[in-house]
Amino acid sequence: MASSLSVVNSPASPHALGRTSWPGLIEAYRPYLPVTAATPVVTLLEGNTPLIPVPAVAQRVGKGVRVFVKYDGLNPTGSFKDRGMTLAISKAKEAGAFAVICASTGNTSAAAAAYARRGGMRAFVLIPDGYVALGKLAQALVYGAEVLAIKGNFDDAFSIVREMALSYPVTLVNSVNPYRLEGQKTSAFEIVDVLGDAPDWLCIPVGNAGNITAYWMGFCQYHQEGKCDRLPRMMGFQAAGAAPLISGKPVANPETLATAIRIGNPANWEKAIAVQQASQGQFTAVTDDEILEAYRLLASEEGIFCEPASASSVAGLLKVKDQVPSGATVVCVLTGNGLKDPDSAIKHCNNQFKPGIEPTLEAVVQMMGF
Length: 370
Ligand SMILES: *Cc1c(COP(=O)(O)O)cnc(C)c1O
Fold this sequence. Notes:
The chain is of the alpha/beta class. It has helices at residues 2-9, 25-28, 55-61, 81-94, 107-118, 134-143, 154-167, 178-184, 186-195, 210-224, 244-247, 269-278, 288-302, 308-319, 342-348, 361-368; strands at 51-53, 66-71, 99-103, 122-128, 146-150, 171-172, 201-205, 233-239, 282-286, 329-334.
């Protein structure tokens, strides 16, 4: 990328060159990533998302436990998928691809569309008809993806794109693409860079189980490099209606309002089991009601709006809080932004606006109850 080369060669400050000091995660973590000087970096300056203390959650856990959320909903397209996509698309471009394809519950398609279009490629996305949150569908369309809604669920769409990529000139950018996980592992680096060590627990929503695998890769790599002394227990949470890793068998008709993790047959199943075993972690199911309770708690008491799937990490922590060691440091990953899913938000927030008020001071004062 010409601009980053000129930054390296120029004595001028990054700001003088019209760039923020954060260069995007490929430049920030270049030595840890499979890129070379020949890789064309396609970036929207993703990564560097905040690690926010959540005292109202911590108070419910008790025992002097510190709890933070890694708010990855603040990435450029509103989910952690951007971390994987900057690398997957850069490598696809390096390999000369002109089109990418993915199956998606929504966030992968938004990220694939944004990065592919920025890299000058076509993006084909297969989504389950009727099960993609409105904001995500809007993103894929506006970014210019070619969106195909199939009469099936994510798992059906995924088996089609997987086969497609074997026989047609399109690069698969689902999380079975190894570059996706390489990019996503940088979130673990950022957590260690801020905390000075790995947390005791990492709580994370699990759908296809790419992200839990990526975080573990990141923590292990940093551990090997001496950047952290410990490794976290990896605590994965699935929605009760889509919990194959807990039941031990694929779920034919997964159901949950947390559509981003509505997956019955995780693409990274074996990897996820390996992570759980290596980290002495655990998979736990949380109900939609528990997810919604955590979702409302995060928004109304912490000021953090995430999408329902993301809230499963906090719902899970609260569910298994008795197992948290006293004084532990816990990070819950908030994978996506609440604005992605305005329908769920309005339907489940236990709050309503008051319509039809006369435009007078008296009427407003009266409604306010003064
Ligand atoms: C993709 C996604 C997940 C699930 O991540 P996996 O890597 O498939 O386990 C969770 N939450 C959100 C918001 C997502 O977009």
